[in-house]
Design a protein that fits this description.
With 149 residues, the chain is mainly beta. The protein has one helix at 6-17; strands at 34-40, 45-51, 66-73, 75-81, 85-91, 95-98, 104-107, 114-121, 126-132, 137-144. The strands form 3 sheets. Strands 1-2-8-3-6 form a 5-stranded antiparallel β-sheet, covered by helices on one side. The longest helix is centred in the N-terminal third of the chain and has 12 residues, at 6-17. It starts with 5 loop residues before the first helix and ends in a 5-residue tail after the last strand.
Length: 149
């Protein structure tokens, strides 16, 4: 299986983000975060995620997959931990890429819905869930594709 490099994933996510029809594939007024896989190739897959106000992914990684995402509408806040808690404010048009094993918690902290587009390579097969303990991330368990998402 081929894996795309992090910079290539940014190019892929920006290419897909240019499609104006993405805004109509998921209802932004749903009460919970929802997602739709819109493309699956051998090297990568593309997910569209709708974020109502207050929605959060909780702490997780994407297993052995590299990833990239961009905000299509609204704003998101990415929480990361690398010896200290860091917050990244992401507005419409902002994009972010990361390597395998990268743990974060993405949240919609605004009063308006948000929409984002995510690309993973290789396709997601596992996600590790964590609990943030203030000075470390504690592993809660590993989810396999099809179990929770």
């Amino acid at each position: 299986m081929t894996q795309l490099a992090v910079l290539s994933l940014l190019e892929v996510v920006r290419e897909y983000a240019a499609d104006p029809d993405l805004n109509y594939l998921i209802d932004p007024d749903q009460p919970e975060r929802s997602w739709l896989r819109i493309h699956a190739a051998q090297e990568y897959e593309v997910w569209l995620i709708s974020w109502p106000p207050g929605a959060s992914t909780d702490w997780h990684d994407h297993g052995a997959s590299y990833g990239a995402f961009t905000v299509l509408q609204g704003s998101l806040v990415e929480h990361t931990f690398d010896g200290g808690l860091k917050l990244n404010d992401l507005e419409s048009g902002d994009a972010k890429a990361f390597g395998a094993g990268y743990a974060h918690d993405v949240r919609n902290e605004s009063d308006l819905p948000a929409l984002s587009l995510h690309v993973y390579s290789p396709r997601l097969s596992t996600m590790t869930r964590f609990r943030f303990r203030g000075d470390r991330l504690e592993v809660l368990g590993v989810e396999r594709a099809g179990e929770e998402w």
